Amino acid sequence: MRFPPHLSRLGASAALLSALLVGGAVSTTTADAATSSVGSVCYSDLPSQAHDTLDLIEQGGPYPYDQDGSVFQNREGVLPSRPSGYYHEYTVITPGSPTRGARRVVTGEESQEDYYTADHYATFDLIDFGC
């Protein structure tokens, strides 16, 4: 059965619930850091170009820029700390911009979380597909 785009991407809260249900340890330090530095945004509140980018991610490309899909290093430390290669970044096209612009979607592999930034990694919002 094929799920509609984004319904299979449960987000970080599902990973947390899963860890709790199977008896896994959850680091409150990591959870607190993520909560304090990352906001939340409803999928429906994102610009339409972000929807296009998320659709491309779901389809596996092709992407408009060579850098799309590359490893995001999280050098700013805004997202929860994860091993190198965990996060990947994708361009959200900015109409009228002669460059890639500042908007990105950054995905996390393990719990399939998606983050949106409109200010080139200064802030992030975890995308909520349920609202």
How would you sum up this structure, described in words?
This protein has 131 residues and is an alpha+beta fold. Helices cover 24% and strands 21% of the residues. The protein has helices at residues 12-21, 28-37, 48-59; strands spanning 38-42, 70-72, 87-91, 104-108, 114-117, 124-128. Strands 1-6-5-4-3-2 form a six-stranded mixed sheet. A hairpin with a 5-residue loop joins strand 4 and strand 5. The longest helix is centred in the middle third of the chain and has 12 residues, at 48-59. The radius of gyration is 15 Å and the shape is globular.
Fold topology:
Blueprint: H1 12-21, H2 28-37, E1 38-42, H3 48-59, E2 70-72, E3 87-91, E4 104-108, E5 114-117, E6 124-128
Main β-sheet: number of strands, strand sense, barrel status? Answer: 6 strands, mixed
Spatial gap, N to C terminus? 23 Å
Give the low-confidence spans.
1-35
Order of strands in the sheet with most strands = 1-6-5-4-3-2
Could you report the average pLDDT, rounded to the nearest whole number?
Answer: 80
Run of helices and strands: HHEHEEEEE
Number of helices: 3
Radius of gyration: 15 Å
User: Helix/strand/pairing class, anyone?
Assistant: alpha+beta
Number of strands: 6
Q: β content, as a range?
A: 15-25%
How would you sum up the global shape? globular
| Helix residue percentage | 10-25%
